[in-house]
Amino acid sequence: MASRRARDTAVKIGRAMGDDGYVAGRNPKAQTVRNMLLAMAAVIPVAFVSYVFIPHDDSKNAVRTVDYRVELDTARRAAPYPVAAPAGLGGDWRATSVSYKAGGKEGSVWHLGFLDPDTEYVAVEQSDGPAGSFIDGASQHAEKTSKTQRVGDATWRQYEGPKYNALVREEKGVTTVVTGTAAPERLVQMAAALKTAKGAGEGAGNG
After folding, report:
1. How big is the CA angle at 156 (ends 179 and 115), to the nearest 5 degrees?
2. pLDDT digits (tens, 9 = 90+) for 42-85
3. Averaged pLDDT of the chain
4. Is residue 125 within a helix (H) or strand (E), and if so which, with residue range?
5. Closest CA to 140 of 180, 190, 183, 188
6. End-to-end Cα distance, the chain
7. Which residue has the higher pLDDT, 126 or 11?
8. How far is Cα 29 from Cα 204, in angstroms, rounded to an integer?
9. Element at 127 (helix H, strand E)
């Protein structure tokens, strides 16, 4: 009698577990998911600690500094106007881009870009093409104001815009724009540093 009762109890327990006779916790699919969660719980803290405490190199994302001397000498030989570039700026000014394009729709265009000591952008742009469209493009659509800025012996017109501000000097045969996201005093500093020369080896003059 006792043996029969034991068998009946075992049958009831088996039915309670389910027709397949397995306890839910030992279901192969459930066990696989559980193992994945345990593995992730072990790996994520290790990865976080590794990122925070192990030094990693961000230099690949740094802005590249360029040496523009060769391009400057080439532009000064080729351009139909005195090409301007700064002299005497400190080492905390970094040149980041340079180009010279001859004879395009905007004329012959000289470009020299910098990051200032505050890591703001300052560019020197020159062209012998139509002044209006060149200034508009170089200054990112900054608008002409009634204000002027005296820098050395030169007078520059101030432009103001939502993205860039600019100092503009229009001369016969060339328009020079100093522009960027930098503070107005940085634009003035760049304008004051500009020098021009008509070829490699020639003396520098005031820009």
Report:
1. 25
2. 656 554 444 444 444 333 446 789 999 999 999 999 999 999 99
3. 80
4. strand 121-127
5. 180
6. 115
7. 126
8. 79
9. strand 121-127
Q: Which residues pair with 151 in a beta bridge?
A: 154
Whole-angstrom distance, CA of residue 127 vs CA of residue 174:
6
pLDDT of residue 155: 97
Report d(CA 129, CA 109) in Å as an integer. Answer: 8
Is residue 80 within 8 Å of residue 126, measured between CB atoms? no
Inter-CA distances, 179 with 19, 34, 85, 172, Å: 79, 60, 14, 20
DSSP H stretches of helix in the chain: 2-17, 28-53, 69-78, 131-138, 184-193
Starting at the earlier edge strand, list the strands of the sheet with 205-206: 83-86, 194-197, 205-206
Residue 140 Ramachandran class (φ > 0 left, ψ -120 to 50 alpha, else beta): left
Per-residue pLDDT tens digits for 126-176 = 999 999 999 999 999 999 999 999 999 999 999 999 999 999 999 999 999
Cα–Cα distance for residue pair 4/74, rounded to 1 Å: 105
| CA 34 – CA 16 distance, rounded (Å) | 23
Put simply, whether the predicted model's pTM sits higher than 0.70 gets the answer no
How is the beta sheet containing 154-160 ordered, strand by strand?
94-104, 107-115, 121-127, 174-180, 165-171, 154-160, 143-151
